[in-house]
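User: I'm new to structure prediction. If I give you an amino acid sequence, what do you actually give back? Let's try with this one:
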Amino acid sequence: MGKKQIHKAVLFYSSGNFDTAVRLYLKIINAIGPVDSLNRSLMSQAYAALGAMYSQIGNKERAFLYFEKIADLGRNFSDTFLMLTSLHNKAVTWSNYNYSDKALSTAKEALKMVQSIDEITYGLDGMKKQSELTGIIAIALIQQKQPKEALIYSKMRLQ
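Assistant: Good question. You get back a string of structure tokens that encode the predicted 3D arrangement of the chain. For your 159 residues, that looks like this:
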């Protein structure tokens, strides 16, 4: 079980068939078994998708459970990008639920991390996350009636 199953699960998720997608992602996770350096990326993809689906259907507690599992993988394998992915997903979720304080603090923590990662290794993924994070920060600052500071982050997003 591997990338082919992930693609199949993505198709179910994209078509709104969350129940089937969740079952397939859980099947993938169970098939992977103990996580090692070769399959941690696949496991983190499954966790991220489950977190996103649960967030989308309004179960933020379960979403954060799966986002935290990504952070655990990052800590266990000293993988900064997985820890960043976890923070990024949490910031997006907080923002989607209009928790501007939590979105702001999480996005700022993630932004510091994204600026420390290896651009050559993570290139476009890192740049995309940085752009999204600065957008989340700008929105949170606007919600908190801090337009001048929001403008700074909006300009960073455009660079």
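You can read the tokens as a compact description of the fold. Here is one thing that stands out. DSSP finds eight helices and no strands in the chain.
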